UniProtKB/TrEMBL annotation:
InterPro entries assigned: MoCF_Sase_C (IPR005302), MOSC_domain (IPR052716), Pyrv_Knase-like_insert_dom_sf (IPR011037)
Protein known as: MOSC domain-containing protein
Segments passing through the bilayer: none
Domain MOSC: 21-170
Lineage start: Bacteria, Bacillati, Actinomycetota, Actinomycetes, Kineosporiales
Short name of any one Pfam family annotated for the protein: MOSC
Length: 182
């Protein structure tokens, strides 16, 4: 185990809407995702991916965003609160974007989520707040896109997760593989 942080908020929505409602507790279900969330399932649930191939495994069962992103965005004039970007778990104190693929996030007493990759935000984000897509997908000095809109994962072990719960990171064996979009 290495870095640790805290859960700031948990969110879910049973419909395919852009944002999710902050709730007191979410229940993570092994191999499925967040109970009562439209994106839960063994196979892809995101509309564009279902249209392409509904038999694909769901590598996006849980969406996590670091609250530090909201702080950064506030410095650019954007106001974003937990759940508004569609994440299920908002954290603080863990650099989610720097984790290698296969990192395991221990959330609360029982839940374990394995990080599968980076969220690739779509143009809907600009419908929420114009200019936000560019702010969460800037380009680095080489011109490559830097995806800041959180990470995606699959539930390895279920359990309840709530604001205030600990987030403990378990890194995979080396060599580490950098996160790619999923």
């Amino acid at each position: 185990m290495s870095p640790s942080g805290r859960v700031v908020a948990v969110s879910r929505d049973d419909q395919h809407r852009f944002g999710k409602d902050v709730v007191d507790v979410v229940t993570l279900l092994a191999g499925l995702g967040v109970a009562g969330d439209a994106h839960a399932g063994r196979t892809v649930q995101h509309r564009s991916r279902v249209a392409a191939d509904p038999t694909q495994p769901n590598l996006r069962q849980v969406h996590l965003i670091a609250a530090e992103l909201f702080d950064e965005l506030a410095g650019q004039g954007f106001t974003v609160r937990p759940g508004q970007l569609g994440e299920n778990v908002t954290t603080r104190g863990v650099d989610l974007l720097a984790l290698p693929r296969g990192s395991r996030l221990h959330l609360g007493a029982d839940a374990v989520v394995e990080v599968t990759g980076l969220r690739n935000p779509c143009a809907q984000i600009d419908a929420f707040t114009p200019g936000l897509l560019k702010a969460v997908t800037p380009r680095d000095e080489t011109g490559a896109v830097v995806r800041k809109a959180g990470v995606m994962g699959v539930v390895l072990h279920g359990g309840d997760v709530r604001a205030g719960d600990a987030v403990r990171v378990e890194l995979p064996a080396r060599p580490h593989e950098a996160l790619q979009r999923v």
